[in-house]
What does this fold into?
Amino acid sequence: MRYLTEADIEALEIGAAILGTGGGGNPYIGKLRTLQELRNGRSIRLISLDELNDDALVATVGGIGAPIVSIEKLEHGAEGVWAVQALEAHLGRKIDALAAAEIGGANSMMPMITAAQLGISVVDGDGMGRAFPEMQMTTFSIYGHRSVPAVLADERGNLVLFKHTTSEEWFEKLARATTVAMGGSSVGVEAPMPGRYVKRAAVPGTVSQAIALGHLVLAANRQHADPIPLICKQEGGVHLMDGKIVDLKRHLRGGFSVGEIALEGIQAFSGQRGSIVFQNEFLLLKQEGVVRVSVPDLVVLLDVDSGRAITTDVLRYGQRVAVLGLPCHPLLRTPEALKVVGPAAFQLHDVEFKPLRAA
Amino acid sequence: MRYLTEADIEALEIGAAILGTGGGGNPYIGKLRTLQELRNGRSIRLISLDELNDDALVATVGGIGAPIVSIEKLEHGAEGVWAVQALEAHLGRKIDALAAAEIGGANSMMPMITAAQLGISVVDGDGMGRAFPEMQMTTFSIYGHRSVPAVLADERGNLVLFKHTTSEEWFEKLARATTVAMGGSSVGVEAPMPGRYVKRAAVPGTVSQAIALGHLVLAANRQHADPIPLICKQEGGVHLMDGKIVDLKRHLRGGFSVGEIALEGIQAFSGQRGSIVFQNEFLLLKQEGVVRVSVPDLVVLLDVDSGRAITTDVLRYGQRVAVLGLPCHPLLRTPEALKVVGPAAFQLHDVEFKPLRAA
It folds into this structure.
């Protein structure tokens, strides 16, 4: 158990953006809101999976919607609390701890803010170990727990409870339609589950992992060192390319930010070509037309100068990026998991998942 | 208090279709399902507003979605029961009686079926006295009661509870999006309210009214008499035109069946021209370019030969129709009501509502 500091939250912003693989929303606003909670005297208590009581009731919390919407559509700030309280009223009992549905991007901050406001703990683990665009794409759902009952809240105070859905896909479909009707973003509290299940199904230690990653980048920045080899070493990843964005297609489809970018190699990678497909998150990197990294492994884009992660909503023509491949957690590479978060789940039917290997 | 007979349900089909003004869904399938409940030994107990206990808890029930969808997308049959039970679980108490949200069309049958299955009463009154396309367009909502908490069910068993919405329009928007995601139709149970409010806000006696209207048409059919003057006399309405449909525009927009028809007068109305705008229901009749009837008054189309109501989903080129104008209930003509169900609420901004008068 540890209490997170302001420095940890600054680091979490950076690490969560890297693990977000371009999605999960920009954590900047969430960071400011989390820091505000700390400055208001609230505390963020992080507990490891080992410290979690078997009988504790844990729910996931996260923002839903295309990242690009959340830049201009501000939250009220209490959506998570409203949704937790509505779910508690429905269940007739208190929720003891919150976990991030996804550690990637803004959704890393959501449990911090809501747990601080409610005075409950945050679990050191999440349902993705990265970010994914759909709600059934959590290890909690993959390994058999239902996302419903779940509550969605918007900044006005609208509260919709999904009492029962006949499948995880139906929950995603109905919650997505509700989110689009709410204006493109909402906050969801889902999957109330016992601690003993969280211990088995969560991707473990991902809050600490993101914070450590952020501290490493910040230390490199202070020492004017290149963070990229350090990130690769810490995460067991590969620095695959430095490139310039020479083509960018991006549009909103059903609440998702989808598209493709083309890259032309620069510096040591001059003369090489790459392309990246995304749906909120980066899904697939091809080099010279050959698949190099695909979901569920992580395709990470960093600004080649600052080493900070680039999200799909701020991609622009001419941007110079470093492309990294990071291996996902083994919980995402099982046959059950690949059915839900492998290439075919993203309509990439001609791609077979091959675990990332060092070059 | 009376128990409805099979003959009453046959009559209700005809009368509810007339009051449906083209919308509310075709009551034919609902009638078959209601008759089946009676043949299975269940009973339908109709109580007047006077007989309703002040402290009874009453909810409305109705199908949501474009009528054209419900022809091919069959219901499971227990949606209403599932939704009532989910709402009861949320409220922590039993619902004592059901009312139609709208008496027009298929939604007249929904409380009959669900109340028979649950063994509770149906209230003789509804929220529209006709049919309207949106859920906030009930007298219950207009006179101050909220539609939420409400539950939507689909034929798979998906159950979505609208716990709180910041306005009636937000409920409509969120429930509509959910319905579209459910495939275009759903069953909703809404607005749990005390008997004393229902007595004040319901359009009174509309189940009996629809049944009486149906018996009148059936009796005229048996006697080879023209039902149209009889309907006009009983409802205080006007026979405005007989015409042939010479143009028909119809499309689905956001779950609604919207469009316009052009009519060329036939028989006694030869040489006249008319046009009718619809959004699930017929909203507006113009004759020679002049507004003759507009919402909330009823524009009713009957087959010129059979005298049966024509719904917007079966309109076709060349059809020969009788057009009637029927006055709506005074509860729909107050300034509060006209804000919600007057021409401007249907984007007919250049139309000022003038109560229908006999020619």
